[in-house]
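pasting for ref
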Amino acid sequence: MTKANILIVEDEVSQGKLIQEILSDQGYIASYLETAEAALELLQVESFDIVISDWRLTGKDGLWLLEEVQKINPNTYFVLATAYGSIQHAVEAVKNGASDYLTKPYSRDQLIFCVERAGEKISLTKENSSLNQELQQRSQLVDMIGNSKPMQKIFHQLQKLAPTDATIHISGESGTGKELAARALHKLSPRCKKSFIVINCGAIPEGLAEAELFGAEKGAYTGAVKTKIGCFEAADGGTLFLDEVAELTLSIQTKLLRVLQDSTLTRVGSQTPLPINVRIISATHKSLKGLVSQNLFREDLLYRLNVIPISMPPLRERTSDLPALITFFNHKHASRHQVPPLKINQRLLETFEGYSWPGNIRELSHTIERLMLLSDDGNINKSDLSFLELSHETKVLTLPQSGINWKQMEHAFYKQALEYANGNKRKAADLLGLSYKTFLYRLEKFLISG
């Protein structure tokens, strides 16, 4: 969070102004007051993302201010600082609703780290709120769209499996709605009040994967300045969605298997196993059985994850849902961008029905958004649809008798994919049928910047 609005409450003027200066230099909007009473008065008329208050103040103390702030805006991130840094004070602060605490005297780096951590948590809260809103939209999508037989089958499976704790693996092409199905399973389950944690296994740096998944104790590795809660612990009581699970390394697969077998985990740097209660849903667009045959995925882990498989149908196999999908995305994007909706005509429907949609629902959504933003008052001309007339069918390249320079051709394909994807590396990787990590490796190998 680059421009958080921070209120500092400190009765030592020199200390308060120093904190304000440090945070201002870091790009934050920092205000400073000396008393809790003055801070409360300001908080009643102005919103702050973060409040950093000393415990001991002239007049009312920081604990009183914390209680009052919670009445006004319980989402405010509140940090209590005290020179009396005993465990009892820290426990009392957290019990009373403090988001974090600082023990005085604290260093400049400790202050900045505390505020950066606050920013991450605030961003996560906002993201979760956005996801909840998106979930409501998607739930409406599930409710109103899905008259095709493939989707009716999916809905039936989701409704039947949601109340159970069965481990489920969702397969399907990119953009078919694997995460949407996982969210529906969580929302319809008894765990719906608990966390739904999504982790993209392909986006975790290999050296940090174990700590991200299972957590790490303070000092377990360089930079581990505090105990880290992993995704499994964060999802305790709820659901953990392992997206692109095929991208996990074999060493992490081994540790994941142990966690699934024992329902316990051990943080990096610890010898103490911790019990966990998490429902696991995994997904990938790859064939796990194919990866097992290539010794890239553990067979025993496959059986653990693939207890009940769900296969999401591609859009080309459910074209009867297109009219309702078009209507949904048309209203959604018009509302979001505050522009007139597209005027749906027969030419548009016929073009959409004749297109193979390699990017599935995601591509359909982006296509409607693109047409809407580039159209004149929602009117669509034939030329506006020309980009959909390009064939996306896979063609077999014929090897010339004279041979080819394979490295040169491979280099050219990577550059072309980046151009077609407008620099979006994930989309470029999809165009080539490569995983994101493999594509990044190839770019580095060929010294291609994108």
